[in-house]
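REQUEST FORM: STRUCTURE PREDICTION
Request ID: SP-0412
Submitted by: Lab K.M.
Chain count: 1
Length (residues): 148
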Amino acid sequence: NRQKIEEIVQELKAAPLDPSVQVILAVPSLYLALAASSFPPGIEAAAQNCYKVAKGAFTGEISPAMIKDVGVRWVILGHSERRTIFGETDEIITAKVAHSLDTGLKVIACIGETLQEREAGITEEVVFRQCRALVPAVGDKWADVVLA
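STATUS: Completed
RESULT:
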């Protein structure tokens, strides 16, 4: 909520942050503009998700252009909850990454296995598959991508 964002902003302003470390905080889309305008210099906001196309009848979704329009330069894509709860596939995440990069956003691309996949001993297979899916979407824009 707004109060929590204000508390975080005050804590960040008082914190002895290393200027060589990039700090990016992902907030719910409703608070993106507030966060982007409130965070102290050197700290950026990120959207927690976006859609894979610029516009259309996609009620409730936000586009990379909307994210940029409120002054935010980052988006997190492929988070485990998006994959498991919302059923986002590598293909959907790849499309989101490609569109976000094409729109000029920087992307934090989440990769990783579920507990069941880890217990099955296929962690490397899953991580390699997810990374391999990103390669064509990223192309030569790896400087704008962080793998998490």
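NOTES: Strands lie at 23-27, 43-47, 74-77, 106-109, 145-147.
Reviewed by: T.R.
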